[in-house]
């Protein structure tokens, strides 16, 4: 019996070794959601949500935000918003004054002196009806005397 029991032990060992390599784990509790969780990429149902979802997918794919972690997305979008705020405020606050300064410099280079725009209009022959209606012959003669 010792020979047969040794054979049965060796067959049991060979079965257990082949069995251990193909063991499938069956969890006893539900598994946590997979990471990264891409539930937000599913297309929503309502028209407004579809529009916002498409805009978000376009924005994330254009700026490659889909590959970033949430904190990196927040940092990039914050930097983008702050930069656009400063650029917009500079355009709104400083551009009108800068255009005025550049207009005066242009008048100086074109006419030779800072002064009234009507000088340039008359030199180029671009008199408008409002400029002609408000000006008299003596004003026009005075402008030409300055030249």
Describe the structure.
- It is a single chain.
- With about 150 residues, this protein is mostly helical.
- About 70% of the residues lie in helices and about 0% in strands.
- The protein contains six helices and no strands.
- The protein has helices at about 1-20, 45-60, 70-110, 115-125, 130-135, 135-145.
- The longest helix has about 40 residues, at about 70-110.
- The chain starts with a helix and ends with a helix.
Strand elements, count = 0
Helix vs. strand class? mainly alpha
Q: What shape does the CA trace take?
A: rod-shaped
Question: Mean of residue pLDDT?
Answer: 75
Order of helices and strands: HHHHHH
Q: In percent terms, what proportion of residues is strand?
A: under 5%
Largest sheet, if any? none
The low-pLDDT segments are: 5-12
Task: Characterize the quaternary organization of these chains.
Answer: single chain
Radius of gyration from the alpha-carbon trace, in angstroms: 40 Å
Ends: how far apart?
Answer: 132 Å
Helix content estimate: 55-70%
Number of helices: 6
What is the structure about, briefly put?
This protein is mostly helical and 147 residues long. The protein contains 6 helices and no strands.
How does the SSE layout of this entry go?
Blueprint: H1 2-21, H2 47-62, H3 70-111, H4 117-124, H5 129-134, H6 137-146
Provide tags for this entry:
147 residues; mainly alpha
């Amino acid at each position: 019996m010792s020979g047969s029991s040794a054979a049965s032990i060796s067959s049991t060992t060979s079965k257990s070794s082949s069995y251990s390599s193909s063991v499938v784990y069956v969890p006893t509790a539900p598994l946590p959601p997979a990471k990264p969780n891409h539930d937000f990429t599913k297309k929503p149902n309502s028209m407004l949500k579809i529009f916002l979802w498409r805009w978000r997918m376009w924005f994330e794919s254009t700026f490659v935000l889909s590959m970033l972690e949430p904190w990196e997305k927040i940092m990039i979008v914050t930097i983008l918003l702050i930069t656009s705020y400063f650029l917009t405020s500079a355009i709104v606050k400083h551009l009108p004054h800068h255009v005025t300064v550049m207009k005066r410099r242009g008048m100086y280079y074109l006419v030779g002196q800072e002064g009234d725009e009507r000088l340039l209009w008359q030199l180029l022959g671009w008199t408008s009806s409002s400029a002609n209606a408000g000006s008299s012959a003596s004003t026009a003669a005075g402008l030409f005397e300055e030249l």
